[in-house]
Amino acid sequence: MSDADFDDFDDPSEGCPNCGGEGVIYMCFSEYACIDPEGGCDLCERRCDWCRPKKVELDPDRLREDRDERRRLAREDGDYE
Fold first, then answer.
1. Mean pLDDT across the chain, nearest whole number?
2. CA 23, 53, 21 angle in degrees (round to 5)?
3. Distance between CA 24 and CA 16 in Å, rounded?
């Protein structure tokens, strides 16, 4: 594909391609007896992972422990100074 083909997907004026800029998506299915499967119901509303991803919070203590463990294992294998 050429670069021109990819430019079609990068237009910010159209909003999020997953939710249309609303920030939520609806996972409604008529077989589960949703109130409004065509328009979306409150029970099936989900946050859009594309434009409103969950923030990952890293624990510095856990990161430090992981780093130290990797260094210890590398020393045992002789791969670390």
1. 76
2. 20
3. 10
